[in-house]
Amino acid sequence: MKGLLFLGCILLPLITFSQKLENLKAVVQGEKIIVSYDISQGYDGDKFDISLYASHNNFTSSLQRVNGDVGRGLTPGKDKKIEVDAKNEIGNYKGELSFEVRAEVIAAFALTNNVSSAKRGKSIALAWRGGVKNQDVKIELLRAGVSQGAVGTVGNNGIYQWLVLSNHKTGTDYQLRLVNGKETVTTGRFAIKHKVPTLLKVLPLVAVAAVVGLVGGSPAKDSKLPLPPDLGLVN
Question: What are the φ/ψ torsions at residue 85 (nearest 5 degrees)?
Fold first, then answer.
């Protein structure tokens, strides 16, 4: 195995994610090849499915005689190592050899926005990431931690428009809980408010009452309206 030149390269992951594969290196140790790499920290809870490929078969299939930081369920971190049984995996191959570390994100089920308040008759956008792709997401309304029933069910496409019904009780301590298979995620607490603030509803009534009082009321008997000033326009 001596004299081989190992070149490292990184293939982009199968789905977009904020983490990065970095510092890919390969060294020969006897009949073993040690490939090392780092996975930078990104979203909390994300895990990775790591596979190793090599140029001896034009990267057509992943290496199987490997152990270490390879396979499913890996977490972010530095100095990850994959040990390759080069004698049995690559055989009598001679010459330059390149490696690819391919990573598929197993995204944690998490909200990507928050609900701070809601108004009756208005729609609220919920957005999330991760979860089981072929598993529907059920959205429940909670109040004080107690379910008030489902508000909708949607395929796991990462977004849902929740229409706040006009008969929802106003108040505080509401939350939305998203359920995807065995995973759940819950929004922060928020309030459901009237569509039009109560004060704005009352003010026009007060104004009308004031107008009626001025038009329909009778002036006091002894009160007199002041005469207009003499501008010298009458002969």
Answer: -80, 85
